[in-house]
Amino acid sequence: MADPKAAAPAAAVASAAPQSLYFVNGWVDYALIGVLSIATFVLLRTFYTGDRTDHVITLAWQLSWVCNWPHFTSTSYRLYHSPDNVRQYPLTALIVPWVVIAGALGSFAAPTVIAPYFVKLVSIWSPYHFSGQTLGIALIYARRAGVQVGKAERFALSSFIYSTFIAQTIRYETGRQSFDDSGITYPSMGLPSWSIAVANLWLILTGLALLFFFARWCLRNKRMIPPIVLLPALTQFVWFGPGSGWQSFNEFVPFFHSLQYLLIAWSMQLKEKMDLDHIKPSARYVGTESARWGLMNLGLGAFFFYVLPHITATRIGVDVAFATGVIVGAVQLHHFFIDGVIWKLKRKTVVSPLMVNLSEMVHVPAAAGASRA
After folding, report:
1. Which stretches does DSSP call E strand in the chain?
2. pLDDT < 70: residue spans in the chain
3. Which pLDDT score, from 0 to 100, does residue 342 have?
4. Cα separations (Å) of 346 from 8, 34, 116, 215, 341?
5. In this structure, are residues 119 and 329 in contact, taking their beta carbons and an 8 Å threshold?
6. Cα–Cα distance between 19 and 127 in angstroms, integer?
7. Is residue 1 included in any domain, yes or no?
8. What are φ and ψ of residue 226, in 5° steps?
9. Is 37 part of any domain?
10. How far, in whole angstroms, is CA 69 from its chain's centroid?
11. CA 70, CA 305: separation in Å to the nearest integer?
């Protein structure tokens, strides 16, 4: 999910706040947005090895089928299921796919020349994309809470979030190292070792600034900011900070990132379809639409991430792991491009569904029910 840079004016935030702070309820939202992943890190750090064991790799791969892969395809569905969306974002919808396909074809044609840099682009853009989603989710919950995030608070929040990405990336890119992704080897940037200290110092400073500006906000407004507003930033700090050095946990970070995304994308899908088709709230609608949307994304995810790489490997005579690395990289890049445009909060069609609560889609409001009676 991209950073909603085009948010509505602060004065309109309070009026746009929904009746509930949460998409489902406190327990579910807190768990999916960060508590579950932080608890997993603590448990693995306390009771398990930091190595990428066979059990960890197998479980992470199995979870990819039900969460990671569908989160990618749900983005493509959101863009392409509506002709209006395609017309609104013609560059992203019609031109970018061909650019990504060209990169993938170049990787197959030059596996030792183009493929390493194609995969490296994905490896750097991915945590940057995580950071955009983290900031976007924090601002969504701020809006739902009626919290007017000023320029100083927003700068501190975004600076801290992106600092976690910068610090992690620099740690990986110092010196002369080689990394492997699906059998595709790519080099580090060879950054000087002192850059790690600079990145960590900047991370600390932005963290202190975040605490200062939000504490000042609380004093000025004489109320506490709901913890879930800052939970995404804390969660990413765990992912890219202490969690990045504990490989058994690091294997599950994409899964937890996908959980965050799917919670919001699922709520958005339900509300958008309800509004467009003038569907009345009901548990039956929520159940059937959730099942339809979920199964569709499961199927598409399995096709793009498992079936297509195997077919490609067989047809052109390359290793399945290599084909998987290139095709999965292409799907991810396309996902990053799409996410950069479809979540902008300046659009009312985006803001309204993001303010919904599950109970509003299950139960007819009391006032509406009384007027019909």
Report:
1. 178-181, 184-187
2. 1-19, 344-352, 365-373
3. 79
4. 6, 26, 38, 28, 11
5. yes
6. 33
7. no
8. -55, 130
9. yes
10. 12
11. 10
The residues, ordered by sequence, that sit 6+ positions from 59 with a Cβ below 8 Å of its Cβ are 252
3-state secondary structure 45-114: HHHCCCCCCHHHHHHHHHHHHHHHHHHHHHHHHHHHCCHHHHHHCHHHHHHHHHHHHHHHHHHHHCCCCC
Q: Is there a domain that residue 4 lies in?
A: no
- Concatenated DSSP letters for 276-298? HTTPPP-HHHHHHHHHHHHHHHH
The whole-number pLDDT of residue 18 equals: 58
Neighbours of 262 (CB within 10 A): 21
pLDDT given at position 11? 36
Whole-number Cα distances in Å, 151 to 28, 62, 156, 221, 361: 30, 42, 9, 16, 34
Tell me what pLDDT residue 3 has.
52
Residue 2 forms part of a structural domain: no
pLDDT of residue 81: 86
Between the alpha carbon of residue 203 and those of residues 35, 165, 168, 257, 369, the distances in Å are 22, 10, 10, 21, 52
Tokens 């297509």 locate to 308
What is the extent of the structural domain holding 169?
Answer: 10-372
Q: Tell me if residue 185 falls in helix, strand or coil.
A: strand
Of the candidates 13, 17, 229, the one whose C-alpha atom is nearest the C-alpha of residue 139 is 229
Count how many residues are written for the chain.
Answer: 373
End-to-end CA distance of the chain: 42
pLDDT of residue 5: 42
Q: Which residue has the tokens 């200062």?
A: 212
Where do we find the tokens 């950073």? 3
> CA-based angle 9:337:245, to the nearest 5?
95
Structural domains of the chain, count: 1
d(CA 91, CA 88) in angstroms, rounded, equals: 9
